[in-house]
Amino acid sequence: MFSISFALQLAVKHTGKPVIVQFPSNKRYQLPAQREDTMKSVHSAVIKRLGIEDASLFALQYCPVKGIREFVAPDHKLKVYAPDKWKSDAVTSPPIELRLVVKFFPPNPHLFVNQVTRLQFFLGIRTLIIDGTYEISKEVAFDLAALSLQADVGDYYDQSNNTYFEPHNYLPPDVMSIVSYQYCCKEIPMLHSKLDDMSQNEAIIRYLQIASNLPDYGVHFFEVVEKLPCEGEHAWVGVCLEAVLLYGKSTTHPKTRGPPTKRFEWHEIANISYKNKTFILDIVADDKKHKSERRHAFETDSTKVSRQIMSLCADTHKFFIKIKKMLPKDLAPKDPAFSVRDYTPSPKSVITNEESGEGDQEEEEEEDTADTGMTRTKSVSRPEALQQT
Whole-angstrom distance between the N-terminal and C-terminal Cα of the chain? Predict the structure, then answer.
């Protein structure tokens, strides 16, 4: 006869422990896992579920209740990030909660060949913009909101009250704070109506073209206090594809960052390290006399944050080397500026079916992917057809 404890152990082994992953679309996906499983196996399962081909662009983030979000180490076992009860033999336990996010940012993301990868990348970038990670002007924010609506629901459907969307789902908090709700409900539909007949893929491509030209595009920010060469200065360290950036305080808003004050490309960096709460950048010196002046040291909130910055720098440098071989020498050619206000639909689209990933499809055909979190009807003729992602 089985004991109760042995029966519970069998149940746990059979069903696994709960792990919940939030997709870029904000949909939540639960999968069973064992305590000895690694984060790499969870990442692989999620990537397969979504149908993403370029898996290296995305990573799992751990979301602790307090503190900064951190990228998980692929080789770490799940129990490293698990609540205490999750590690036990209890049948019911709180889940490990993770997010799938964009980690690396190619300079021209709209050129992705795989349509699912492009969609998930778009959803990830949109989340960063709506969360206020990037500083963005009101005009650009409204252009992006209109393109996002076109990707979500298709052509504008004339409604007298224009309540088919919520502005806070499409605009960052900084923009919402300077305009009225009524203005948003009037301006965004007006811009949305200019995009009639634009396909979902073209709307996503246009969105990514604008986003990749933002000054902060692709930068991971960490708030720090400078120790060397200027002690006590409040600053931010930014890690992007090509370099490590240093930002000072804004002259107009002391609690926010200003423009980058220094830029150290990878070939200029001799060494990156950390010691306890101190993150250290050693820059290639012109001569030995100035060696001490070429060290930049920053105090972070914790040893964990210092280690995370160093790890992100190492991973980003590896990705930079990998992608640089596939790019021209100028690395990041800028796309022509696109404005919804100036957009005029034409019979011959600027973006071809081959570039957008579309084939020959019926006009009213509904687009859907395995579990992308986005279902969209090309021609919207009823309010019920609208679906918020």
Answer: 51
* Cα–Cα distance measured from residue 51 to residue 117, given in angstroms and rounded to the nearest whole number: 8
d(CA 60, CA 54) in angstroms, rounded, equals 14
Q: How many CA atoms lie within 13 A of 372 on its CB side?
A: 21
**Residue 377 parent element (H or E):** strand 376-377
Q: How many residues does the chain have?
A: 389
How far, in whole angstroms, is CA 181 from its chain's centroid? 26
CA 367/CA 208 separation, integer angstroms: 20
Residue with tokens 């979190």: 373
Q: From start to end of the chain, where are the E strands?
A: 17-22, 28-33, 58-62, 70-71, 96-102, 220-228, 233-239, 243-249, 257-265, 269-275, 278-283, 295-299, 366-367, 376-377
Give the Cα separation of 236 and 299 in Å (integer).
11
Tens-digit pLDDT profile for residues 313-351: 999 999 999 888 776 555 444 555 667 766 666 554 444
Torsion 301-307-312-313 (CA) sign: positive
Q: Which helix (H) or strand (E) holds 38?
A: none
Task: Report how far Cα 120 is from the mean position of its chain's Cα atoms.
Answer: 9
Residue located via tokens 């060949």: 113
pLDDT tens digits along 260-318: 889 999 999 999 999 999 999 999 876 655 554 588 999 999 898 999 999 999 999 99
- Answer yes or no: are the C-beta atoms of 305 and 225 closer than 8 Å: no
DSSP assignment, residue 61? E
Q: How far apart are CA 25 and CA 121, in angstroms?
A: 10
Cα angle vertex 314, ends 316, 54, to 5°?
35
Phi, psi of 307 (to 5 degrees): -65, -35
Instruction: DSSP for 191-203, please give it.
Output: HHHTTTT--HHHH
Q: How much is the pTM? A: 0.81
Cα(68)–Cα(312) distance, rounded to whole angstroms?
Answer: 14
Beta strands 17-22; 96-102: pairing state: parallel
